[in-house]
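[SOLVED] Need 3D model of a two-part complex

Original post:
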Amino acid sequence: KQEVTQIPAALSVPEGENLVLNCSFTDSAIYNLQWFRQDPGKGLTSLLLIQSSQREQTSGRLNASLDKSSGRSTLYIAASQPGDSATYLCAVRPGDSNYQLIWGAGTKLIIKP
Amino acid sequence: ETGVTQSPTHLIKTRGQQVTLRCSSQSGHNTVSWYQQALGQGPQFIFQYYREEENGRGNFPPRFSGLQFPNYSSELNVNALELDDSALYLCASSFGPEYTEAFFGQGTRLTVV
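Solution:
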């Protein structure tokens, strides 16, 4: 059974720092992995989608990497800003039930001005 | 291009009642998935509809049911509400049931009292 873990659960850093959020999954047989952002009490905003054949994706100050063999993905945020404060979730689409996403519990990020 | 919209945004129901939540998929998308997110946790997959047929189901009891209409909008129905059904209900749309990027609505916050 696929399980997704995100560490740390919470992170607080000063504005301007570069930071890395981690996501690990137990079964390397995935179709893709998606990173999302969630503001308090709100829905989910898709940030990056990495297909299983890809190693990384970039969008602006965000870069996500995928290492299927080790069951890991990282989301790198460059030059963090207070507006980046949110909960970041990763989700994998498993190979044996590709109609669903399996989610981590998220990392709550606070960027201090 | 319109995004995914959900209605209502907030809802309070009494235990034992029935509720219907609605989702309009993003233009051009033919697949809708529903997720339940309890406070502080990642979303849990309820079911997916593809071209008006249920295409996959998570570990939810039969009192959770759904529909997809010819215009690909969808409903989630929950009968015999329980206190533990209190959660944020998220709808995601995509083009096709697998591989592709999922886009989410803002969610419906259901409170059962």
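Edit: DSSP finds no helices and eleven strands in chain B.
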